[in-house]
Design brief:
Elements lengths: L7 E9 L3 H12 L3 E10 L10 E5 L14 H5 L1
Parallel strand pairs: 1-2, 2-3
């Protein structure tokens, strides 16, 4: 793991919902002596779209049981 010491990492995930995958990678990188300097995702699902610590390209549309799209602020209005 000596090769990782001092390395700067940009962490990229396909879809973020809780952020746990990116958090786990950040913990592993820190244990190896690397520094995660940015976190990104292609799509953000639900509440993840309102996070400011992770950049993303688009909001992932969510659907109800009838296949109808939910409004993007659905989780903020129901929690």
């Amino acid at each position: 793991m000596e090769q990782m010491r001092g390395i700067r990492i940009l962490s990229v995930d396909d879809v973020i919902s809780t952020g746990r995958s990116l958090q786990a990678l950040e913990e592993i990188a820190a244990a190896a002596g690397a520094d995660v300097v940015g976190k990104m995702a292609i799509l953000a699902e639900g509440d993840a779209a309102s996070r400011t610590d992770i950049s993303y390209l688009e909001k992932l549309p969510l659907f109800n049981g009838k296949g109808e799209p939910l409004p993007f602020d659905y989780y903020q209005r129901t929690n």
